[in-house]
What does this fold into?
Amino acid sequence: MTKQILQIDGLSVSFGQMGERTTVVKDVSFSVGEGEIIGLVGESGSGKSVTAKAVMGMIKKPGAIDSGSILFRDRELTKLPPGEYRKLRCREISMIFQEPMTALNPVYTIGEQFAETVHTHLGYQKKQALEYGVQMLAKVGISMPETRLRQYPHELSGGMRQRMMIAIALSCSPSLLIADEPTTALDVTIQAQILELMKDLCHQNDMSTIVVTHDMGVVAEMCTRVMVMYAGRIVEISPVEELFADPIHPYTGALLRSIPRIGEHPELLYTIPGSIMTPGQRHAGCRFSPRCDWRLPRCDEAEPPIFAVNGERQVRCWRCEGGAAHA
It folds into this structure.
């Protein structure tokens, strides 16, 4: 059995002022094994990035972790002092942010930003840091790395900036990498190159990875297991092949039906009716029931727990009560 490097149990995150707080992530639980690549998917606003930032200790006021546990290598991160968390970031847990142009500082060269990271976490002086930077940029496939280190972020293409972010994220050889929408701003050809690079580096370094995305194609390419989120809740956890072959939760099935397929030419692409619940919107039952084609009267009355289905799979749907996959 694979040893778990990260275990999240009952995580809830809210934003707002005292007495007027809005829960945006509720009772999220999942684990990541050593060397495992998992996907965290869902529509925009489902709580994926907030969950990732909670693991990184980046929930700032007016946000707060209300309850739950984040256990990383047997260390409880929710109780970690800020100074200890800063030491943990990049060194043991690292993150590739969604838009490299906003994550990189526009007034410093790539070399200065790389050197700052490895000086802070590895103690390298500037010359040693830049030599290491040349090695890392070459490792992620950037040509002329010595020249690139002297350039500013705006002088690089989107693909190069994303490779630069990967090089910085991997510079301290972390045990866990979180990639938040790593290919959103890239064209299709560069997307494929970045995904292949990330997959190769994760396998070479035996690094656990959480890929946060709304793109099911990225999940199919990268991951072995996937968590589907909707309106702040995890609604399905499944091995990737089983999820694509037989989605159980109605929301998962709707997501997969929304993907265009080569050779199929319907007049209109399938769309999920309605819209995702806004943060703070109250609903007594299943959060997806207002948009669900399969809903029962019970679905509007009480929110279902998550049920174990077919061994490894877990689904938050009343149709799966008792372990049967009826959805």
